[in-house]
Amino acid sequence: xxxxxxxxxxxxxxxxxxxxxxxxxxxxxxxxxxxxxxxxxxxxxxxxxxxxxxxxxxxxxxxxxxxxxxxxxxxxxxxxxxxxxxxxxxxxxxxxxxxxxxxxxxxxxxxxxxxxxxxxxxxxxxxxxxxxxxxxxxxxxxxxxxxxxxxxxxxxxxxxxxxxxxxxxxxxxxxxxxxxxxxxxxxxxxxxxxxxxxxxxxxxxxxxxxxxxxxxxxxxxxxxxxxxxxxxxxxxxxxxxxxxxxxxxxxxxxxxxxxxxxxxxxxxxxxxxxxxxxxxxxxxxxxxxxxxxxxxxxxxxxxxxxxxxxxxxxxxxxxxxxxxxxxxxxxxxxxxxxxxxxxxxxxxxxxxxxxxxxxxxxxxxxxxxxxxxxxxxxxxxxxxxxxxxxxxxxxxxxxxxxxxxxxxxxxxxxxxxxxxxxxxxxxxxxxxxxxxxxxxxxxxxxxxxxxxxxxxxxxxxxxxxxxxxxxxxxxxxxxxxxxxxxxxxx
Length: 490
Fold this sequence. Notes:
This protein is α/β, with parallel strands linked by helices. It is about 40% helix and about 20% strand. The protein is built from 17 helices and 14 strands. The strands form 2 sheets. Strands 3-2-1-4-5-6-7-8 form an 8-stranded mixed β-sheet, sandwiched between helices. Strands 9, 10, 11, 12, 13 and 14 form a 6-stranded antiparallel β-sheet that branches. It is globular, with a radius of gyration of 25 Å.
């Protein structure tokens, strides 16, 4: 079933609702938003800015043209003509029932209604709806625009056809729908998270570890394993050649040991709340929520892009899903030039002729090179170590004109890579017409800034750039490659 939709409505514009707005718009869907909160437009704009910064860097192909965003004056106005209505209001059963009943009364008869609830039963939510068969819980994870999982849970009145249509819609948005077999409070993901959360609270309460130490245990060990293999497959491997059966026979008895407090929860008294809050403030080191969100987004992009490069470029886990999404957008899974930067020409880039001024082309090419370096692992930490690639030669050709508001994409072909050198060729294209606006050929050297000389890159970095160069080796060489200034074409 083709799940492509043209218009959606988001009721509720908080963190989750705004995340849905961003994913939908950047998937090419028009979105109407209704949220009576006075700061709703600001929250949506800030979250969307983060998504627009991070989401395009997930793929090696351009996202579709973004959808339109409109803030509606009331709920009925927002849901008019919507094929999907995503409800994301606060977790109060009475409030959700009232909002869902209003959505049901105003939305088109064939619209799917998805609730972002993180734990309320869909059968309870369906009370008061005239058409409860079209309601499905569609529980995402924050940030919605980057994390692909959405738990789909039907209630007693939900029809199989609703679940099938919902699965198709969320799949076209680049998500991984997991249909929960029967409704249960908190579904699956939050139940697993709650089990870990309860143990973590006790570890802080008993002064076994601080919040930072517990987070370090997770993010430096099994958190990385879970990102690409989950729980059961990880344990299957832990059983060795004999697999899961051996693992269960060896470690199963440990489940009866009386060391866990999983079925108990420490009292959240003021002392424990203060301890956790103070330690969390110390852990944040003065970074704002938005700064922490951007750090989180950068890390998620890096992890998922790294997973997409595994298994000879086929991807693994969430990376495999990215490759499938790229193949669906491109129509083929053949190797292509890297698509690293997308944007719109702002007014301040326009010169007296009404076109993008000359030095802005160099800025876009510089941003493209930065995106390439970040993709291959030359990130802030790597640069802080005193090493990086430095551009030592650039040849730009201005081939077209870009006016204010023009949408552009950049592509990069790796021409050659060795232990010290990285030879690349960039293009800037008009996203709407496909016309080439400019090209740039660049030579970069891997440099140790402290030693002030070119040095060999580490083996893992060399392996990454060499793999890209090999993947691009079959592509035709750009006709402008190696040209000098004033050389005639042809």
